[in-house]
Amino acid sequence: MARKHEMPAFLLEKNVDPGAYERWLGRKASAHVRRDRRRNQSGVSHAAVVLSAGQDAYTGEKLDWRLISTYRNEDSKTGRHAYKKGYSLLPTVDHEESGASAASFRICGWRTNDAESDLSLADFLALCESVLKYAGYSVTEGKHIELPRPAAIPESDERDL
Fold this sequence. Notes:
Layout: H1 9-13, H2 18-36, H3 46-52, H4 73-85, E1 91-98, E2 102-109, H5 110-116, H6 121-134, E3 151-154
C-alpha cells in the first residue's frame, strides 16, 4: 500500500505499522466526511495526529497507537465491557468544532471521546467538575487546561481523502 502520509516520529518509535496507520486514518476520514457532508466540510487530517504528539488532547495521557486498526466487533460482542476497557487509550478523532468553512479535530483516547461526546470544551469541563464535586473532591475554580490548537481543515482540502 502506498503511503499518503509521512509517519510521525512518535509512531515510528512505537513500531506502529504504517499500513495500519493509513487504514485507521482512512476510516476516520471517511466517517467524518459522511458526518460532515451536510455541513459542507471535509474530513480528518493527518495534521491532527502530528499535532497530538501521541497524547490525548484532553488528559495528556500517552495514547496506545499499537491499538489502531485492531478493534474487532466480534471480539467486542463476546468480551463486552472488559474488551472495550482494553481500548480506552485507542486513539480517536474528536470533532471539536464545526463551522461553515472549516472543521477542527483533536486526537484523544476512545474513553475520553466517549465521555466528551458532543459537548463543547466548557461544557465538558463543567461536567467533569460536577462529577468530581459529587464524588467529594475539591475543585479549584478558574483553573483551565490549555489544549493544543486543533488541526483546522479548510473546506477545500479534500485531496488527501
